[in-house]
Amino acid sequence: MEGRYFKYYRDSAWQALQAGDYVKAFDYAEKALARNHYNLEALNPAAIAATKLGYYEKAVALYEQALVTQGETPEVYHN
Length: 79
Description:
This protein is an all-alpha fold. Helix content is 80%, strand content 0%.
């Protein structure tokens, strides 16, 4: 279910990512994903932040989840 908390965490993840605060971005994205495991707008910042933080196994798992969830969409490949 996507409620206001999901949107807050998702938006905060993107803002933190843009600010270069990858720890906060990852944390917020994980909180968003706890509310909706399959949302590409939460999977992408989580995967990008995980990559920047060197959490490569987690990043691969997140990208794979994005592929399963969204299929062959350009958003999954352009990160």
